[in-house]
Design a protein that fits this description.
Largest sheet: none
Radius of gyration: 36 Å
Structural class: mainly alpha
Strand content: under 5%
Helix content: over 70%
Distance between the termini: 35 Å
Order of helices and strands: HH
Length: about 150
C-alpha cells in the first residue's frame, strides 16, 4: 500500500496563506478609507455647488452684502476643506498602492508554494501508480508461473 502524500512545507504554505489574508484585509481597509475620502470630496463639491446657487439667488434678490459675504466665506472654507481632503486622498491612494503591491507579493509567494505542492502531488501520484503497477505485474507474473507449473505437471 502506498504512503499517504505529505507536503513538508504545509506549515509554510499555511503561514503564507495567513500573510496573504492579512495583506488582503489591510488592502480592503485602506480602499475603504480611500472610498470615504472620495465620498467626502463629492459631498464638499455638492455643498459648494449648492452654495454657489444660493449666492446667485441672493444676488438676484439683491440681498444684503453681509449675507453674500457669509456665503463667500463658507465657500472659501469649503475650498480649504477640499484642498485638505484632496491631500488626504493622495496620501491614502499612495498607501493603497503600497498595500496592493504587498498583497500581490504575498499572493505570489503563496501561489509559488501551491504550485510546488501540486508538482509534488503529481510526482507522488506518479510514483504511487508506478509502485501499484509493479505490484500488479508481480501478481500477474506469479499467477502466470503458477499456472504454467500446473500445466507442466
Amino acid at each position: 500500500m502506498a504512503k499517504r502524500f505529505q507536503f513538508r512545507l504545509d506549515p509554510v504554505l499555511r503561514f503564507r496563506t495567513q500573510q496573504e489574508d492579512e495583506e488582503k484585509r489591510k488592502l480592503a481597509e485602506i480602499q475603504g478609507r480611500v472610498s470615504l475620502a472620495k465620498r467626502s470630496l463629492d459631498e464638499i463639491a455638492g455643498a459648494k455647488a449648492t452654495e454657489q446657487a444660493a449666492v446667485a439667488d441672493l444676488m438676484r434678490a439683491s440681498a444684503g452684502i453681509s449675507r453674500i459675504c457669509d456665503s463667500y466665506r463658507y465657500m472659501v472654507a469649503l475650498n480649504m476643506q477640499r484642498i485638505e481632503e484632496e491631500h488626504t486622498l493622495r496620501e491614502l491612494e499612495a498607501v493603497a498602492e503600497q498595500r496592493r503591491q504587498e498583497f500581490v507579493e504575498a499572493r505570489k509567494k503563496r501561489r509559488a508554494l501551491e504550485m510546488l505542492r501540486e508538482k509534488r502531488v503529481e510526482e507522488h501520484r506518479y510514483l504511487t501508480d508506478r509502485e501499484d503497477q509493479q505490484v500488479m505485474d508481480e501478481i500477474a507474473l506469479h499467477r502466470f508461473n503458477r499456472a504454467h507449473r500446473e500445466n507442466d505437471r
